[in-house]
Design brief:
binds copper (II) ion; alpha/beta; 31% strand; 2 helices; four-stranded mixed β-sheet
Length: 139
């Protein structure tokens, strides 16, 4: 009996250590995601990314805004949807009341901003400053 109890405690300790190890690995993965480098972009594809697309919906996926550059009429709301499992946001490079400054949104969440004034609005994601996009607003 005594021997069995000792064995049981031994197994319990090993299991607990395993759970802690997994938790530590998970949390360090989270940190790694924060500093994940931008996916390498093939320069021959860059023209496709920078071509303005008529769209009011932008996906955030694989640490990129897609489409990267959109064109809308003044008075249009643009909605971003995060499809990554990490949090992203949409923040204008130049702060202004006419430009977006969104909160961090998680997977499946959206953020909308209404562009009332014509202009070219470059934006980025604050935790991942290499994530860039542009909204071109015309009258
Ligand atoms: Cu981000």
């Amino acid at each position: 009996m005594k021997r069995n109890t000792g064995l049981f405690i031994g197994i319990a300790v090993i299991l607990a250590a395993g759970v802690i190890a997994v938790a530590v690995i998970n949390s360090s993965n989270k940190d790694n995601n924060k500093s994940k480098p931008a996916p390498s972009q093939n320069s021959s594809n860059s023209t496709d990314n920078s071509n303005p697309v008529d769209a009011t919906a932008v996906s955030i996926k694989n640490y990129m805004f897609d489409p990267m550059v959109i064109k809308v009429k003044a008075g249009t709301s643009v909605t971003w949807t995060n499809k990554d499992s990490v949090q992203h946001n949409v923040v204008a490079d130049t702060a202004s009341s006419d430009a977006p400054k969104g909160p961090l949104i998680g997977k499946g969440q959206t953020y909308s901003f209404k562009f009332n004034k014509a202009g070219t609005y470059s934006f980025h994601c604050m935790p991942h400053s290499y994530m860039h996009g542009t909204v071109i607003v015309t009258n």
